[in-house]
């Protein structure tokens, strides 16, 4: 429901012919907001695209080298370990290899071998220097000409090779500056600008006093004298971390045993070299690791073999002695079956215990492999107790024979297996063959993988659109100005007679006004088919219907503040009324800053001021226009007390006289909220129109304007909304 803040008085307020309603924003409204903010949206998107283009084209290119290796599962020399590992078949051995690849043992050696902890880079001009240097197409030995004579920066073709850089601990990870003196000499400066040393290419310069720990050797360089290079000696851990951040190792698919290695870097050739070095170190370290493991297991077996051999010989001697003493003893088939089962259980138990002892050298009791071995040993112990219960039912001679035979077979089998494993380990140790195969060596892609220009530009475009659209809606939400005529009607309870769109033709006429004295700024006369003029014709029809019961022929045209278009509406409405055959006179009643005469190309003096001062008659002050039925009474000269002049009886007599000669007299008044003149003028008028400009007022300002007119007894009949766009105009149709 709309709110009517003004007391209802008979004869002073006119109810709307329809109930005003509060309307929610529709898709049409949202489109209108976007169209209204189109220039801001265009600017924001353009800025966003410029930033995206700068990032895409000025960022250093990043290349990626990749390689493929296969890490085969290690086979155990002891068969029981293979049984245990089968319990954990879903745990890929590749995970351990990937961790090994990312270890400091591998990456640290690559850093040391390739001196990756020493960084030597040319100093480029900010933002665009590196981009220009990359585009330099000179041949070998050529240098780009310094731009604008800035020889301190590198512009293309510069390089330096540092083979040694040792610094004290306080200068680790600190940028030092090397300045080229000529093709062979250079100077090194610290972070504070102090000279650290001066040297020559290919030599180890003597450090200055206080820099004894500093060592630098430059094996080659190419740069203009005065060019600068940034030198950094990174801490070893810092260099390893930087390499690890660029390095990636992932299994291609589950249980495939294939590992894809990638390394990113700004130098195409160097990136492949570094990745190949990582692979070489990894293969070498794996070979050494396997050799050490084989040697450790071999030492363990060498300790076990003598004991097993002695146990085997004792078992054989005991069996032979028993046979000599008892003679030949035949074992029934059932007893032979028990013997075979007992021997098998004892052999497995013995082997599992040896494997457990070997694993305990590497892992704790809680390791899954050891837990699995303990579970197998528990099962074998239960099985052995069952076999022992069967043996107890045999005759004593058979029991003795069974125990001795079992001891011989168990020790013989174990000794044979360990001897075989020992021989296999000797071969493995001698060969030192790694379980890693290089499927594809490292190669670098021809094109840079970063920055992805198309993706960056697309993101910049979308981000710009999002920010711009969001800003447009936020600005509209925070803005208190009123755009919608329906909202004005719903809040004030006063009908909007017409909405006048912005007119490009009117802006052109204003520019031409300075070059001609004709009525060139009157839109209704020069462009009668303009949409704004059509709106004024609609207003004329509405006024002919609404003003039939008014007490006089005076029509006040006022606005809350200056710049809303009251003079434009008054002048062009006068033209439209005169074109319809009415006799019309337009009075510029703004005695403070009257400018209505400019619309007609006339002078402002003499005018109304001179009439009210008694210096001129009405007939002498009236000015003819290009239309036969339209006259103009300009404001005249400025005075100090215009309100007092308008309150004199002389002004009322002038208005009475004019009503006898014209069908409609239009009063163009000064701003309503700035001075009291408009209310004084409105008290003479039979009706008043309030001209407001779309987006220039808040509801509080409009309510205050209506309240001031009501308090002054002014008959406000309707509102004219000026300066709307097409979307706002389409939403509101003039009502008669």
TrEMBL record:
<dbReference type="InterPro" id="IPR050445">
    <property type="entry name" value="Bact_polysacc_biosynth/exp"/>
</dbReference>
<keyword id="KW-0997">Cell inner membrane</keyword>
<keyword id="KW-0829">Tyrosine-protein kinase</keyword>
<dbReference type="Pfam" id="PF13807">
    <property type="entry name" value="GNVR"/>
</dbReference>
<feature type="coiled-coil region">
    <location>
        <begin position="291"/>
        <end position="325"/>
    </location>
</feature>
<keyword id="KW-1003">Cell membrane</keyword>
<dbReference type="Pfam" id="PF23607">
    <property type="entry name" value="WZC_N"/>
</dbReference>
<dbReference type="GO" id="GO:0005524">
    <property type="term" value="F:ATP binding"/>
</dbReference>
<keyword id="KW-0175">Coiled coil</keyword>
<feature type="transmembrane region" description="Helical">
    <location>
        <begin position="456"/>
        <end position="474"/>
    </location>
</feature>
<dbReference type="InterPro" id="IPR032807">
    <property type="entry name" value="GNVR"/>
</dbReference>
<dbReference type="GO" id="GO:0004713">
    <property type="term" value="F:protein tyrosine kinase activity"/>
</dbReference>
<keyword id="KW-0067">ATP-binding</keyword>
<keyword id="KW-0418">Kinase</keyword>
<dbReference type="InterPro" id="IPR025669">
    <property type="entry name" value="AAA_dom"/>
</dbReference>
<dbReference type="InterPro" id="IPR003856">
    <property type="entry name" value="LPS_length_determ_N"/>
</dbReference>
<feature type="domain" description="Tyrosine-protein kinase G-rich">
    <location>
        <begin position="396"/>
        <end position="477"/>
    </location>
</feature>
<dbReference type="InterPro" id="IPR005702">
    <property type="entry name" value="Wzc-like_C"/>
</dbReference>
<keyword id="KW-0472">Membrane</keyword>
<keyword id="KW-0808">Transferase</keyword>
<dbReference type="Pfam" id="PF13614">
    <property type="entry name" value="AAA_31"/>
</dbReference>
<keyword id="KW-1133">Transmembrane helix</keyword>
<feature type="domain" description="Polysaccharide chain length determinant N-terminal">
    <location>
        <begin position="24"/>
        <end position="114"/>
    </location>
</feature>
<dbReference type="InterPro" id="IPR027417">
    <property type="entry name" value="P-loop_NTPase"/>
</dbReference>
<keyword id="KW-0812">Transmembrane</keyword>
<protein>
    <submittedName>
        <fullName>Capsular biosynthesis protein</fullName>
    </submittedName>
</protein>
<feature type="transmembrane region" description="Helical">
    <location>
        <begin position="30"/>
        <end position="58"/>
    </location>
</feature>
<feature type="domain" description="AAA">
    <location>
        <begin position="557"/>
        <end position="681"/>
    </location>
</feature>
<comment type="similarity">
    <text>Belongs to the etk/wzc family.</text>
</comment>
<dbReference type="Pfam" id="PF02706">
    <property type="entry name" value="Wzz"/>
</dbReference>
<keyword id="KW-0547">Nucleotide-binding</keyword>
<dbReference type="GO" id="GO:0005886">
    <property type="term" value="C:plasma membrane"/>
</dbReference>
